[in-house]
Structure formats: structure tokens, C-alpha cells
Amino acid sequence: MTDPDSGRRPKYQRIADELRTAIQAGTFAPGDRLPGENDLMSTYDVARMTARQALSVLRNEGLAEARKGAGVFVRSFRPLRRRGIPRLAHGHWGSGRSVWSADVAEDRALVVDQIEVTTAPAGARVARVLGLSCPDEPVCVRSRRFVLDDRPVLLSVSYLPAALVEGTAIMEPDTGPGGTYARLAELGRRPVHFREEIRSRMPTAEESDRLALEFGTPVILIGRTAVTEQGVAVELNEMTLDSASYVLEYDFDA
Amino acid sequence: MTDPDSGRRPKYQRIADELRTAIQAGTFAPGDRLPGENDLMSTYDVARMTARQALSVLRNEGLAEARKGAGVFVRSFRPLRRRGIPRLAHGHWGSGRSVWSADVAEDRALVVDQIEVTTAPAGARVARVLGLSCPDEPVCVRSRRFVLDDRPVLLSVSYLPAALVEGTAIMEPDTGPGGTYARLAELGRRPVHFREEIRSRMPTAEESDRLALEFGTPVILIGRTAVTEQGVAVELNEMTLDSASYVLEYDFDA
DNA sequence: CAGTGGTCTAGACCACTGA
DNA sequence: CAGTGGTCTAGACCACTGA
Q1: What is the CATH number of the domain that holds A199?
Q2: B4 lies in a domain?
Q3: Phi and psi of B124, rounded to 5°?
Q4: Is A254 within the bounds of a domain?
Q5: Which of A31, A89, A195, B102 minimizes the number of CB atoms within 10 Å of its CB?
Q6: Nucleotide D7, nearest residue via CA and C1'
Q7: How many angstroms away from the CA of B139 is the closest CA of chain A?
Q8: pLDDT of B183-231, one tens digit each?
Q9: Same domain? A170 vs A231
Q10: Given an 8 Å threshold on Cβ–Cβ distance, is B252 in contact with A248?
Q11: pLDDT greater than 90 at residue A42
Q12: Domain that holds residue B119
């Protein structure tokens, strides 16, 4: 009854198409429950695996999410706006505010719920970026997870030369007002230039776990290098963002 | 023999784990053939659907790609570097070069293989960005696909007020030296400020088709607004990038 | 405790690839 | 033409959710 041209397109695709159309038409609103495996099995007279395959198409597209034991639901998307350039302006962190505070409206709070500060050998990649002479040289590794409204949205791992930050607040969990950049400035290494590199890919199992990601949700990777007036890289910050939670914004002149 | 703690983790995940480890260890190099469905069925003594599920984990992570009738292969990733800020500097397109030419090394060519220029009603979203008084106002729509080494990497749709660009080269497939921005400058609407917004998500079926994307490959969306000295938005350019083909770079000062 | 999604089996048939 | 991945069935059992 639904397919005059049932010819070439696989069953599971046709079922996914119908559900997708219904979602876009508003028949199912964000948060609504979709027909589940059992519903599709009887409605379309297909096997469980075929019904699952149809639903997994929508999950891979980021349109639906499954909650075990409860059902399959239409996803919603209300992103944070991360303004790449003003958040790193000296006037912002120089006045004692956190770089991260720029990303959220004042009525919401982006908080760190996991933090780990260690010292470890740099490794080849980090040594190259920070201009260390040898991959075994120690670096300070600041690893954090940020949570918004109880939802993890971002992982951040920051690398700084251990020789530079040894014994400073940068080695403490709480780096104090203005954060790492304010402390670097006090050490005479104020960052004046930044480079951000952006990629996107599907998460690893560990990332998916730590960010509590749904199936079809990619991560955005940002690698930022902070450079001093003398052209020396003093920090590499590698961030992993839940792509369903973020829009990045860059403003600049021609 | 492979699982002392076979307890909680599903079979398909354990198989995927082993393959992933082997890929990361270099046992399988980029382009190599991986064990296929039939191999996994006999090696691990599982049903076809379970072997498929294991392979689909790796495909979703972007680590492997299936070629029907041939096998499953390790994917490779060699991205283009898109330098967000210098490519839009007036000195670049002002001297007659294309904005896009900045994205590739001189020995490779990023070429347009599909182009369509039409006029259509703006619609609510575009009208809002371009500051049009009514969503029915006509806009010039320039839709292009870019190909690198025969591989489609980017879709671009550009919107400009029809009242402004009517009868100019901007309505032609070839906009001439320096492209749209050089023509806007000649009209007294030189863009001096840009805003780029970046998101990432899984592709729609159409995007997946036009960019010839593999299973677990997200797209990166860039929405750029070009603004004149007078603060008027003259262009909205919406781009859809194959995330496996691009790294974005933004350089700026504190 | 009824219903849900998650995992898994042992088969079948198909279109496609590449030697 | 042998081998491959893609689709599909008709069952089964499990852990989890929420009334």
C-alpha cells in the first residue's frame, strides 16, 4: 500500500524514509516517541533485524535516539555558541574571567566535573608543536571534562612544557583567576597569538562514553596552539566537542 | 581463546575491538583489505549478522570502508587545509585570484564540476540573514560542487539579494577574476567583514550521495556571512564539507 | 510485570567485483 | 565464476524501563 515502485530501494530504507518524512513534517516533534521495533515489525510485516536497520538509519543521521527499555525518540538540538576569537581576547581573561565562561549565557553554568593534572613525556606530536628538542621531555598535562546542565559536552587536554610551569598554579587543579593564560602572562609568557585547527569525525568508544554520545553524533576536534610575542608555542590544547551541543563562530575582517 | 573475560561485552564489540587494535598497531595499513564477513564468521564462529555488526562499528568510526563484491578496507585520511582568514583577505581576491585557490597546493586543482545559478524567493532564514524586508524577496542562488582529483569534497550554495546583483557577472556561471567578492566591490559593496559559523552532523541521504561519502563520515557545515563597511550583509554562503577531506584553520591575535 | 530495545543464530537469495 | 558484501527471515533470550 505504501510502495507502488517497491522495486529497487531496500525495505529498511523505505521504512526509514517514511519515518524521516513524518519527522520533518512535524508528525513527530522533538522528544516524541517514534514507532519502535515491535511496531514496525507488525506495521510493515518485517523481521526484527529489518525494523532495527530502519531505525538505525535514523539514529545514524542524528534524527532519532534509542533509550533501552523505553523506546525510540526524536532528538532535539539546541547548541552552545562558542565565539572563537573574542573568548581568547586578552581583555577577557586578563580581567580574571575564565575563557570558558564566554561560551554560555549568564543563566547557565559550564562546570568542570573531572580534572586530572599530571606530568608525562611529551611524545612526538606534542614535542613538535611545542618545539621541544626531544619527545621524552616532560610536559604538564591538564585533562578536564566540562558539563552543562548535567550533560557532558566537551573534553579538553592541555599540554605545557613542564620546565616552564613547574611549581606554579598551572600544575594545580584550580589555576586561579583568568586561568592558565593569566598565569603564563605572570611568567612573562603571555600568549598573544592563537591558531585553531578544526576537524570532525565519528567518536572513538572512549569518547562516546565520556561524552555520553548518541549513535550518529560526530565529535568536533579543536587543536589550539598558543604563541607568545617571541613566536614560542607555550600551550597545545586539544578539545573534543559533542557536535550536537556546539556551534563554533569566527568573526574576522577581510 | 581470545576472551578470558568474555562476560559483559557483546561479541560484535569484542571482534570490532580486535580489528581496531590491529589497525592501530599497523597490522592492517591504510588501503589494506580487512577480514570480511565470511572470514569473521569462521574465525569467530558467529552468524553473518554478528560479523556485519562488528564491521559496521568500524565503518561508523570511519576506520573502514566496504566495497561491495570486493571486501572491507582500511580507510586513509589526507585532508585539505582550509585557512579560514587569509583566504578571504582583500589582498587575495583583490588581486584576481579565487578564494578557493587558497585551499590547495599549487600542484593540485580544486575545480567546479556542477554549477547552477538561479533566482528564487529568499525564504525566512535567508531573508533574516540578508536583512530583507520580506521572505518572498528574490535572491540569486549560486549552487556549486567542488571536486579535487575527481573526488567531490565540497558543496557550496551562495545567496545574494537579486535586486543588487541583477544583470552583473554574479548571475553568470563564471563570475570573472576575483569572483563574487571582486564584483561586489565594483558595485560599491566590498565585503570587509566575515562571520563563519561551523557545525557538524551526519549527512542527509542527498549530501551523502552528492559527496560520495562513506558510511561513518560526518559533514562539516560552514555558514558564512559577508558584511560591508556600512554593516550590511551582502552574501550568505552555506558550505557542506566532506569531513574526511578537510582541516579548517583559524589564526588570530589575543 | 508487560513492553522495550539489544544481541544473536542459522539459514536464504541477490547484485556486484575481479581474476 | 568463485567470492564478496547487502538484504532479509523467523525465531530466541537478555537486561532494562516505567507504570
Answers
A1: 3.40.1410.10
A2: no
A3: -60, -50
A4: no
A5: A31
A6: A10
A7: 24
A8: 999 999 999 999 999 999 988 888 988 998 887 889 999 999 999 999 9
A9: yes
A10: no
A11: yes
A12: 80-249
